[in-house]
Design brief:
The structure holds two protein chains of two kinds.
Chain A: H1 3-17, H2 23-30, E1 34-39, E2 47-50, H3 52-58, H4 62-65, H5 80-92, E3 96-103, E4 109-120, E5 126-133, H6 137-199, H7 203-228, E6 234-236, H8 237-252, E7 257-263, E8 267-269, H9 273-291, E9 306-315, E10 318-325, H10 339-351, E11 354-359, E12 364-371
Parallel strand pairs in A: 7-9
Antiparallel strand pairs in A: 1-2, 1-5, 3-4, 4-5, 6-8, 9-10, 10-12, 11-12
Helix pairs in contact in A: 6-7, 7-8, 7-9, 8-9, 9-10
Chain B: E1 7-11, H1 15-27, E2 31-36, H2 39-49, E3 53-56, H3 66-76, E4 80-85, E5 100-103, H4 108-124, E6 135-137, H5 139-144
Classes of the chains: A alpha+beta, B alpha/beta.
Amino acid sequence: MTDILRSERAAEELAAEHGAGDPFAAAIRATRMAMIVTDARQPDHPIIFANNAFLALTGYHRDEVIGRNCRFLQGPDTDPAAIEKLSAAVANGEDIAIDILNYRKDGSTFWNALYLSPVRGKDSEIVYFFGSQLNVSDKKRVEFELDDTRDRLEAAVAARTADLTQALQQKTALLHEVDHRVKNNLQLISSLLLLQNRRVTDPGVKNSLRGMLERVSAIATVHRRLFQSEDVERFDVSAFVRDLVSDMMGAARRDDIKVSLDLERIDIAASKAAPLALVISELFSNALRHAFPPESMGAAVDGRAGEILVRITRQDAEFRIEIADNGVGVENSASSGGFGLTIVQLLCQQLKARSETTPADPGTRVVVHLPVNGVHH
Amino acid sequence: MTERPLDVLIVEDEVLLATELEFLVEEVGCHAVGLAMSSDEAKALACDLRPDLALVDVHLRDGPTGVEVARTIHDDCGGVALFMTANVKRLPDDFAGACGVIGKPYSEHGVKTALTYLTVCLREGQAPGPPPVGLELAPAYAQRWGLPGLARATG
């Protein structure tokens, strides 16, 4: 008996079981879904039934498909991995749903959403495999287009990211370069002032140069601090005050004056750092130079040890920066209310800050009130 | 103590900074033995004059060659280098054999206290205490001078 004959015999058996009056058989024959049945008991599982929808989808005549294994639907571009999965499912007697590229009789291709499932007999032995085919070429095309679009978008994003990374690197390098130049130039300005200070003998000129040097140093300290921190947008005022006071006290060589610091950490915007630094530097310098005249050396005014207090606190919506001394007091000091105080007034105006000078009895207390809102972003 | 003053070589390509530094060095009782403005000059002077300490700017007349100068001073000239640079963050982790760094812009007082402090460290082989504000020590020297656990600080 030939294979074809055997398949026809099997087909007849199937047909006999599901005669003309069987509504399920009629439905399968007439449905628009392509369907086949293969004989699992014959070698190589030949097709023993194919409905009209299957023939219409694949372009074959019925007598061209009956008796053959359905692998004739595969072609050169069919994914070997998909074929592998299909064979494994059949060998294991499992059902499988898979999208696979199939070929029609005329050689054209279509994407087949194949569903294959074993049909078991009474003794649970696999008798048939039932296969249904759905042409999903349109869906696949959209999928491929989406993949393609996504790939192109990803490539575009990658290219843009590379551009931005490079731009950022350039910007960082430029920032370092500018920072370097600013610091070097500040150093140069300091050196110029120091060198000239060594040459002049007039105490008035020396005094002015000292004052300018202090101001430049305050700005220099701001710069050093700003670029030391990770966040170049914010400025830690208390850390600055510690550096400034240590430097000014060291340079003044007034071991007779004690400094107390009571500093709460406050951060201000970097753009306000230099003006505030100058205000603090000016006020501290004023206390240091004028509250304890050297003629009362030992800084003991009326028997008191000299002391300067710097206190920074946050109170509700404002920062409070207090610089107080127990020295001779404003009315007795040699402070001329000159250039230094003008600077303080002007910069407070710029910072929208308010400065109050009151007798501390003994000494002088200056408090600068700086609005938090004007400072925080 | 009647010890001889420390010999200090200045390696700096800004002549005004170098001149002012010379004054500062002398004012703290050290002896400024020379000034180099390029890496070649610096290496030659360092090996010739054998200074105790070399103040080394990173950017010299021939480019960012100060790091290489510090390494030569350490490896070949038996001296100790101290960086003075605006680019503290760009120094190698081992400080190229230098003992530390003073960040620019520095103050007159900052340099003087740093030099006084380092004079003690170099003479005694032991630090008199933690380094002053403005001076950052290299980890290897902090260890050598009895300041272990002095991590590389940012502030």
